[in-house]
């Protein structure tokens, strides 16, 4: 099965269009105000309604209130919710949309237990752990820490770049990868050349 690519941290229509043209299966919008990739829901809604079909749109939240999640999901009409904080499975599953749960790879993270706890999630997304930073760190973690039996079901994130994505896919063989900072020109602005190289490297890793 070909690895799916989600490009996260979209703040501009032109970046969404380039990502889709290069082959993104999904786009992510960050609704976490301290992030330099934050996008106002109204602006995200405009981008989302202009997308062609068959591109999954994802709304990223960090410890947001249930009311805000529900309002933003309705306003933007995203397909999928991404919870990137300390949300419980009960919280994540309380909305009228499917969700993915980000797990930050703390030392000794028990992914088998997390998989059981978040059995209602469509998938777990694995990101690097950096104390005090909820995500988007641009840092990779040690992929050997992912239990072999989970590798084909996870979304691999954290510090992926055109330089390391080929190795990541060969080593982990994940269901999907999620890239943000590694394809940026500056925070919140994607670089078309880096995006193109990233997708070329994905294809190369899969011998396409
Ligand atoms: O992008 C952010 O600013 C962000 C803020 C808070 C939580 C998550 C965030 N981004 C997500 O983190 C991972 C890894 O990002 P990177 O490729 O290392 O930059 C990815 O899912 C981003 O969407």
Tell me the layout of helices and strands.
Layout: E1 4-7, H1 13-22, E2 26-30, H2 41-49, E3 56-61, H3 66-76, E4 80-83, H4 89-92, E5 99-105, H5 111-117, E6 123-128, E7 155-156, H6 165-172, E8 176-179, E9 184-186, E10 189-190, H7 192-205
Parallel strand pairs: 1-2, 1-8, 2-3, 3-4, 4-5, 5-6, 6-7, 7-8
Antiparallel strand pairs: 9-10
Helix pairs in contact: 1-7, 6-7
The protein binds the ligand O=C(O)c1ccccc1N[C@@H]1O[C@H](COP(=O)(O)O)[C@@H](O)[C@H]1O.
The ligand O=C(O)c1ccccc1N[C@@H]1O[C@H](COP(=O)(O)O)[C@@H](O)[C@H]1O binds near residues 136 and 180.
Protein model, in words:
The chain has about 210 residues and is α/β, with parallel strands linked by helices. The chain has one domain: Aldolase class I (TIM Barrel, Alpha-Beta Barrel). The chain is about 30% helix and about 20% strand. It contains seven helices and ten strands. An eight-stranded parallel barrel has the order 1-2-3-4-5-6-7-8, surrounded by four helices. A two-stranded antiparallel ribbon has the order 9-10. Helix 2 links the parallel strand 2 and strand 3 (about 55-60). Helix 1 packs parallel to helix 7 and helix 6 (about 165-170) runs parallel beside helix 7 (about 190-205). The termini are close together. The mean pLDDT is about 95. The ligand O=C(O)c1ccccc1N[C@@H]1O[C@H](COP(=O)(O)O)[C@@H](O)[C@H]1O binds near residues 37, 138 and 158.
